[in-house]
Amino acid sequence: MRITHMQPARRFLPSTNALTCFEAVARLGSATDAAAELSLTQSAVSRQLKALEGQLGIELFERRGRQLVLTARGAAYVKEVRTILQHLTRASVAVRTDARGGALNLSILPAFGMHWLAPRLQDFAQTHPEVTVNLSTRLAPFDFRDTHFDAAIHFGREDWPATDYLPLMPETVVAVCAPSLIATPLSDPRGILSHDLMHLETRPRGWVRWLRSLDIDASLPPGMVFDQFSTMAQAAVHGLGVALLPTFVADPFLNSGQLVLASPHTNQSIGSYFLVWPRDREESHSLTSFRTWLRKQARS
């Protein structure tokens, strides 16, 4: 018996060019900006949008000044279009590559990616040459359905919706500063309160937890606030204050002598590092290989 698959009505199938133009304009709010991103002319993008709206029989955008704003139907449609384009991209990449490998698109946190993961990736490349790891920075959780990412490095708790988790490690922090600020580690940790303390946006109570772990309850002196550990580490190198850094960030600076321990005491942050990936998506061979390798690295 011959089995045939139902073919979708071709009149309802827009071209990939039209869908790509539609998605870019929806994201950027401008046909001109979309044209620049896609290496097309503005008129070519406008023609694709007009053809798509004509094919669907609806308006996808309304003009507000110089901005193109999605209509309610357009907003609903672009969510489906993005998912379809992502699936098509993954399928096209997969069919061209080794079935055992392919690309792995990984979202990373800047400090963890730079100081812990990147130095180890050569080992993964040597043991899994069939897998290409692409790294991009994201600072907060996101919906995997709206992105091209296969997995992400997450800090905090197991609170990322609709994902599976691989626990990697807790975050242990140390107090560090330039040698010119504190020459030798303070025997009394209360002495650290006489210096400017630097803070990280995502760890606003880091110093409070560090001090309370030593049974110190005191008002904190003022200090600069940073959005990334790497920037805060450089500020500490230049003597701008005392920083609480994860050990994997602090160690290279300590080994080179650019930073010294302001106190011998360490403390664990309130969260841990995890590898997370979408629960409702079939796991690729690339992700399986990377997850297995990463588990061994975290345990070593």
TrEMBL record:
* Keyword presence, Nuclease: no
| Location of the HTH lysR-type domain | 14-71
Show the InterPro entries listed in the entry: LysR-type_TF_proteobact-type (IPR058163), LysR_HTH_N (IPR000847), LysR_subst-bd (IPR005119), WH-like_DNA-bd_sf (IPR036388), WH_DNA-bd_sf (IPR036390)
The record's listing under SUPFAM superfamilies reads: Periplasmic binding protein-like II (SSF53850), Winged helix' DNA-binding domain (SSF46785)
- What GO terms in the biological process aspect are recorded for it? DNA-templated transcription
- Record bears the keyword DNA-binding: yes
- By its UniProt entry, which Gene3D superfamilies does this protein fall under? Periplasmic binding protein-like II (3.40.190.10), Winged helix-like DNA-binding domain superfamily/Winged helix DNA-binding domain (1.10.10.10)
Molecular function GO terms recorded: DNA-binding transcription factor activity; sequence-specific DNA binding
**Listed Pfam families:** HTH_1, LysR_substrate
What are the UniProt keywords, alphabetically? DNA-binding, Transcription, Transcription regulation
Question: What family is this?
Answer: Belongs to the LysR transcriptional regulatory family.
Q: Which PANTHER family does this UniProt record tie to the protein? A: GLYCINE CLEAVAGE SYSTEM TRANSCRIPTIONAL ACTIVATOR, HTH-TYPE TRANSCRIPTIONAL REGULATOR
Recorded protein name is HTH-type transcriptional regulator, LysR family
Question: What is the organism field in this record?
Answer: Roseobacter litoralis (strain ATCC 49566 / DSM 6996 / JCM 21268 / NBRC 15278 / OCh 149)
